[in-house]
Design brief:
With 139 residues, this protein is of the alpha/beta class. It is built from 5 helices and 5 strands; from the N terminus they run αβαααβαβββ.
Amino acid sequence: MTTLFPQPCPELPAFQSLLVKGPYHASAPFHLALSHATLHPDDKIILLTPNRGLVKDSLVELNDEWLRRNSGHGNVSAAARRIEIFYPPTLAHLRLLLSMLHEYHDTLHDQKTTLDAAPSLLILHEISSYFTASSSEAT
């Protein structure tokens, strides 16, 4: 059951694409990634977010009890190892990263962007910030 909240909670319906709009708690993308990884134990998940410091500060401020209690244990720890988080700070960096991500087929272009398998879930967190006037740059 893929979800944006710690268990027990309502499940999301099955989806191929999902847009979460409006206010949500800081740990929602991590609960989404962890719940998906738990359901699909052989899959890889990628989370893209523009501001590492803001994500860290928001998580610290929220102080998610479930993450604090469970993140280093058993299935949650195993699921977390299959989540790759990238922090491209600008739209140009995001475009470069997305163009470089690829599956390994006898060629290793870059260790960080060469994946053993395609991700089953790609989370674009705070993607709108790439298109604001204060963060946009020529691409």
